[in-house]
User: Fold this.
Amino acid sequence: MVLSVFERRRIAVLTALTLIIMFTVRGFNNDTDSAATTTVAIASTVPPIDETEIPSPVILGGPAPLAPTGSAAIAYPATETDVITGTASYSNLGYTQTAVCYSIEAPIGRTVTVTNINNGRSVTCLNVFSLLVPNGVTVILHTSVFIKLADLIDSPIPVKISW
Assistant:
């Protein structure tokens, strides 16, 4: 059996602690009437270990292990390139009454479907360019479009955006 350096040191420390505790306990329980005292010395030697030697594997039973090929099978989740999740807020976006919205990630001029994650409602709108984008908001919806998804006081809401 080959022991590592850490295991050898641990055994040596435990041996020393055991001897110290043994002699301490025996010293407290020593009677003055005893005629002879016997001292026992315990010595342990650990053979030197060649750290470069690697032991061969031991197969305890069952089928033989497969040889490693250098690659592992990894399962990746399905990704949709035209779908993102984020938050939505509202604005008048140029005072128009048509269903318009603005998302930085979606292409300009495309019809965008925005789905409220909280309640499942969805609307479609035309992605137009706008300069009003607050921090942390993924899409700005026209007020008339936002009302179809949630109340204005719920803003910002978590949404899924697809185009």
